[in-house]
Write a sequence for this structure.
């Protein structure tokens, strides 16, 4: 069924696992992620960035994800990832998204609080949970270059959560969106310091390319939602490219897209084991 993220994230927090949030960009990726969740009896979050929403339009994409979620035997939330304006957040809320990120991390601390608070207040009556970001997760996020980033300050995080009433918080601890040149260096002590003073579920962004052991350690230290995007794009494209290389005369999208779909499903299943959400549905 279609659910909000509040309950599934609080259960994850209570029982010390995390839920994978997977960026989906077409029907096949939606089907792959939900199939993985059903096979492993895992709750899951489908998420779309503003560029994906722009590609297909909000209602078109939502209709697709909603059918998959409603038919699913496991809890599925539909989340707006890196919502970049109050307007887009409200459009997602109206169309039926069950979870919304308002990313004010590029604003000043005060302006981030302001924009987050108005979205939290607007979403409260419909029980739709809101995620915010404090500090900057760098790298190439969506179609924008997020630059170098800046770490989340634990005391600012505490004040931010108190002043906004936000449901979950994305923290910047050294991950970046996209692929890494070397191995990312994460500030795990900082994560623990944030966890000590902030009681809501914490979110890890930029997880493609982070070693699995490091992700598991982050979950042990309080991460309850783990975002994967780039690696799903890579998996889907790999499947399609391999099929077309072997079958250069192929003309049926169902044929090559289903190979991409299978690659995404395998990838997502492996990450559900890493974050610990298997058999938690
Ligand atoms: P990656 O593309 O590095 O997996 O980052 C995902 C993410 O944070 C989506 O919000
Ligand atoms: Zn992100
Ligand atoms: Na990454």
């Amino acid at each position: 069924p279609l659910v909000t993220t509040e309950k599934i994230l609080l259960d994850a927090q209570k029982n010390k696992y995390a839920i994978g949030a997977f960026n989906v960009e077409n029907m096949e990726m939606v089907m792959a992620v939900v199939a993985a969740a059903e096979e492993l009896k895992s709750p899951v979050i489908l998420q779309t960035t503003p560029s994906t929403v722009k590609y297909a339009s909000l209602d078109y994409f939502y209709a697709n994800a909603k059918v998959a979620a409603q038919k699913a035997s496991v809890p599925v939330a539909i989340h707006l990832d890196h919502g970049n304006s109050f307007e887009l957040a409200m459009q997602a809320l109206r169309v039926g998204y069950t979870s919304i990120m308002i990313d004010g991390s590029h604003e000043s601390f005060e302006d981030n609080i302001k924009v987050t608070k108005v979205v939290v207040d607007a979403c409260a009556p419909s029980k739709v949970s809101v995620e915010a970001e404090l500090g900057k997760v760098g790298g190439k996020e969506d179609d924008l270059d997020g630059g170098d980033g800046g770490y989340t300050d634990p005391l600012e995080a505490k004040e931010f959560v108190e002043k906004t009433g936000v449901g979950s918080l994305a923290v910047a601890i050294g991950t970046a969106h996209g692929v890494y040149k070397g191995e990312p260096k994460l500030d795990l002590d900082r994560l623990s310091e944030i966890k000590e003073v902030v009681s809501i579920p914490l979110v890890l962004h930029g997880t493609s390319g982070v070693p699995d052991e490091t992700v598991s350690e982050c979950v042990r230290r309080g991460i309850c939602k783990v975002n994967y995007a780039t690696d799903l794009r890579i998996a889907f494209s790999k499947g399609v490219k391999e099929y077309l290389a072997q079958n250069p005369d192929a003309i049926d999208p169902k044929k090559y897209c289903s190979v991409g779909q299978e690659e995404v499903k395998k990838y997502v299943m492996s990450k559900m084991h890493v974050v610990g959400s298997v058999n938690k549905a």
Summary: The mean pLDDT is 96.
